[in-house]
Amino acid sequence: MTIRPMTAADIxxxxxxxxxxxxxxxxxxxxxxxxxxxxxxxxxxxxGRVRGTVTTLDFEKRLGWxxxxxxxxxxxxxxxGTRLLEAGVSALESAGVETVKLDATSMGRTVYxxxxxxxxxxxxxxxxxxxxxxxxxxxxxxxxxxxRVCDWDRAVFGADRSRLLESLWEENPRYSAVAYQGxxxxxxxxxxxxxxxxxxxxxxxxPDTGIAEELVRExxxxxxxxxxxxxxxxxxxxxxxxxxxxxxxxxxxxxxMYRGPNHYPGEPAWVHGIAGPxxx
Length: 280
What we know:
The chain is an alpha+beta fold. 32% of the residues lie in helices and 32% in strands.
């Protein structure tokens, strides 16, 4: 087994592993990783063939993300996933990233605890088919709105993730909406296409304003009668209540974990839905 940097030529192999795992990513997602972190994505090869992947993202050196740890089923339980994880963490820490984060499955959490990660908060995957027949009337986000959203989001997320938000918006603006109160941003939503379902997130709103419900209704109206995934933060129990009321069902639990000081936790109480386990 050898580990080397991932290139665009490896995307078909990544898609094969993604399909075997039943995940939702598309080729555009892999391209996003390679564009945002060209030296932070790796593949594990056996006899010259890609059998595993890992990706990373660096947000302002304050925090970094490790994700897309995928291993061919034929090569699991042989240490490949651990070596890929270590390659991703090492790349971030060598680049001076202060805190490394990831979203762990229940099985993966034990491995991460052994490597110095600790729990931050819980996340729940919910899925359903949008039955929305009416939206909240929000228009699609404009470029000027996006600029304001990126500035506002820095305090919410804990670091500047403008490149990520811009990438999501540019890929498909139709998922986007922003809400204002008194001339100031009160919340926003973005999304992306997936191999299995539309993905709702990030979904962020000031608590106890009613904005979160308006934003999710607008999103669901735009993808009416189509499947949707959303990963909600358990810091916002009302988010689960909202999506359950809209006919969604609980699918699985994840745990957001971190290694390092976590000096910039952001405002998780404002985050109803994350950008994705692979994006933060």
